[in-house]
Fold this sequence. Notes:
This protein is of the alpha/beta class. It is built from six helices and seven strands; from the N terminus they run αββαβαβαβαββα. Strands 1-7-6-2-5-3-4 form a seven-stranded mixed sheet. The longest helix is centred in the C-terminal third of the chain and has 23 residues, at about 170-190. It holds the Pfam family Acyltransferase. It comes from Paenibacillus phytorum.
Amino acid sequence: MLYRIGRALFRFMFILFFRLRALGMENVPTHGAVVLCGNHTSLLDPPLLGTPLKRMVHFMAKAELFDIPVLGSIISRVGAFPVKRGGVSRESIRLAVQLLRDGNMLGVFPEGSRNNAGGMGKKGAASLALKSGAAVVPVAIIGNYSLFRRMTIVYGKPLDLSPFAGASSEDLEQATEAIMKEIRRLHTAYSKG
């Protein structure tokens, strides 16, 4: 219930203040395990990633956020779970894989931090998808959250990561690069229009 209310409020805010345009929502499976993989430029990216969709999106969030009295309670109730700074714990990975195996949707930013926009993606998203058998949907967030300027979110077609199912470090790097390449392609293609 809290998630639906929050999603409605964010949808209203994004449409009113950022003229949100969402494209490709039909590419997101309506059931089953899904990993949404998006580029990351702002603290507003997590709510933006899930706002246009009817399904709940779970996120890993910095463990420190759960220590903030009101915020910690709210983000727990809307599907976030803690991850320790400096690396993902085995417990967080197990929880993420279990959420996916239970048919949920997980939002991941393969770049890691917001400041790594041009860098090589981290291997966690590919690893989670391969371990759980989840569909991987690349997502491009286009715009800079300037008031009354257009923000666009583009959901791409699910990627086939089966060629990288060996799960070696090299396979994960190649799978991650395939995800990042498609996010960049979507970003470039839709930034022009």
